[in-house]
Amino acid sequence: MTTWFESPADAAVRLREAGYLTDDATALTAYLSGALEKPLLIEGPAGVGKTELAKAVARATGAGLVRLQCYEGLDEARALYEWNYKKQLLRIQASGGEDSWSETHDDIFTEEFLLTRPLLSAIRRDEPTVLLIDEVDKTDVEVEGLLLEVLSDFQVTIPELGTVSATRRPFVVLTSNATRELSEAVKRRCLFLHLDYPDAERERAIVTSQVPGLEEKVARQLVDVVVRLRELELKKAPSIAESVDWARTLIALEIGELDEETVVRTLGVVLKHASDQRRAVKELKLASR
To answer: Which residues cross the membrane (predicted)?
Structure first.
């Protein structure tokens, strides 16, 4: 068994040192996921730090990071493994028909011809590893079946080679933006953490920790505007990363006061849709450009 964190308090401290400020629930769940060796399913809107938490766990523990970016159409060949068919064909041609099919079959379905993908790579690593299965809700429902063996038994079955079991279980993090409901089978195998946008005080702490040169007054003004923007009906609410980008923008422009004119001039840093910018200008009663 790998010890990832000594306690929830240890998780909070080490994640903070790795640049990720947690609340109590996040620190507790991160600790339990490592202590119980159970995958962690993190759900919440885009931009609240789900992916960043997995990266922070890797930084805090010195583990390697293996990432499977999910998308519609993802299949076994991209998630688990596939065979190097071109190399297999060359091997068959090189044999010149001298070997029997059974001999050729046994020869071409070996490690030499296996192309490992993220899930299998993470299972086979000897060193501490964080396996990030990012945006799992974007895949087809069928793909969840590929995950069950990994999530429950930390193993992968390759028909031609047998079962590959993890010698050192990875710290598994699945993220979901909740665009669709995940199966109960996947949820049963995971601990669950819901992440939402932080309150204003914690977001100020996050922003100032990421942008040390930002004045406290400007940080407070920035977060207050971001909170108001998230209350609007926008296509895409500002993420925490965009709050940080906005703070860096203000530093680059040497702005010491976030007045209405500055908000309007730099609104494109946090709102990426023209309709969202127009709505913000109108509903926050900002001076138009």
So the answer is: none
